[in-house]
Amino acid sequence: MKAAFIGLGIMGSRMAKNLLKNGVSLTVFNRSPGPMQELEKSGAKTAASALDAVRDSDIVFTMLPSPEVVEQVVLSETGCLSGMKDNAIWVDCSTVNPSFSVKACQVAEKRGIRFIDGPVIGTKYPAAVGELVFIAGGDKALLAEIEPLLKFMGNRIIHAGETGKGASFKMVFNALLAQSMLVFAETVIFGEKLGLSKDFLLDTLPNLAVSAPFTKPKAEMIRTDNYEVQFPLEWMYKDLHLAALTAYEHDQPLCMANLAKELYASAKQSGLGREDFSAIYKSLKKTGGGA
Ligand SMILES: NC(=O)c1ccc[n+]([C@@H]2O[C@H](COP(=O)([O-])OP(=O)(O)OC[C@H]3O[C@@H](n4cnc5c(N)ncnc54)[C@H](OP(=O)(O)O)[C@@H]3O)[C@@H](O)[C@H]2O)c1
Predict the structure, then answer these.
(1) What DSSP line would sit under 207-265, residue for residue?
(2) Is residue 291 part of a domain?
(3) Which residue's CA is the closest to the ligand 1 atom numbered 34?
(4) Residue closest by Cα to atom 21 of ligand 1
(5) Residue 291 pLDDT exceeds 70
(6) Which residue, 101, 162, 258, 266, is most buried by CB atoms nearer than 10 A?
(7) Residue 290 half-sphere exposure toward CB, CA atoms < 13 A
(8) How far is the CA of 191 from the centre of ligand 1 (A)?
(9) Are residues 145 and 12 in the same domain?
């Protein structure tokens, strides 16, 4: 299969590299040239546009920030969907809202393109070592057809259901992740206020049965005040916004996630958007625990 990969940011660059490592014939496109030049060294062909990247490809992966960008790069009049081969497969790995995935699938199918929503769980390191978890929505037989390629980038492929269900699960997962991080950060700040040492709190809290395991590496980021980006805070804010939008579409109250959304909004506004989302600690600390 000839493949194309569009969007070579933190995640896409690493995922594309794993396809190349496994001998996949790959054409890449990114808005800024730097990441393409890097992958060229690993054997990728580069394209002048997304449209050029997809022309000969049997399968196209996109890893873009938001539904707005996927719309612009793929679905719009100038988007690359129009250049895809008939019966090609488009796997959208971007984290987008479920109703957008359903719309993207409908537009793609009208053009004779097969579609899978395939967002991933896992960040920079799992992406680098091919240990992402794909949560896919769409036709099960189609997923089975592309599984060998997905296995070059991930070590678990979960079929969540029909189109949009991959995006749905990813949304639920990130709403939980965002809130768990926030609760952990607030708890550490509260403990510090009570005179408990920060090191003691960061050593003990992540190991408790009530704590999520991911708080262990995040505790180290807080301890060293090093929020080198893995999952950008701005994309966590985006995901909470999409969760709020989706809840509205389903007439579902989402009180806690909406509260979390505003706290991440405030952190982004204070300039932390391109730091890791665990920098929510820094934001809460600066504002004395509030927005
Ligand atoms: N980082 C994580 O841990 C993680 C984990 C799971 C899922 N995700 C999801 O994966 C997606 C990508 O995340 P990421 O962390 O890789 O993001 P990122 O590092 O910010 O990369 C975003 C990519 O999209 C491109 N892009 C941005 N705006 C664009 C536009 N208007 N037109 C064309 N291209 C544009 C960027 O190009 P430039 O290089 O030119 O800026 C870059 O290649 C997001 O949906 C995110 O929520 C991220």
Answers:
(1) GSTTS-TTHHHHHHHHHHT----SSBHHHHHHHHHHHHHHHHHTT---HHHHHHHHHHH
(2) no
(3) 31
(4) 9
(5) no
(6) 101
(7) 0
(8) 35
(9) yes
Q: Note the pLDDT of residue 288.
A: 80
Q: Which residues pair with 6 in a beta bridge?
A: 29, 62
Is 4 in contact with 61 (CB distance < 8 Å)?
yes
Q: Which domain holds residue 241?
A: 168-286
Q: pTM for the complete prediction? A: 0.97
In the predicted model, what is the mean pLDDT of residues 116-126?
98
Strand runs labelled E in 30-152: 45-46, 59-62, 89-92, 114-117, 120-121, 132-137
Both 80 and 24 in one domain: the answer is: yes
Q: Is 94 in the pocket of ligand 1 (CB under 6 A)?
A: yes
The pLDDT value given to residue 34: 97
Residue type for position 232: P
Distance between Cα 202 and ligand 1 center (Å):
30
| Centre of ligand 1 from the C-alpha of residue 151, in Å | 21
Mean pLDDT of 229-252: 98
Q: Indicate if 67 and 115 belong to the same structural domain.
A: yes
Number of separate domains in the chain: 2
122 and 35 in a common domain? yes
Q: Same domain for 26 and 159?
A: yes
Q: The CATH number of the domain where 268 resides is what?
A: 1.10.1040.10
Give pLDDT tens digits for 43-83.
999 999 999 999 999 999 999 999 999 999 999 999 999 99
Q: CATH no. for residue 106?
A: 3.40.50.720
Q: Is there an atom of ligand 1 within 6 Å of 27 CB?
A: no
The residues annotated as belonging to the active site are 170
CA 177 to CA 254: how far, in whole Å? 15
Considering only residues 28 and 289, tell me which one the structure prediction assigns the higher pLDDT: 28
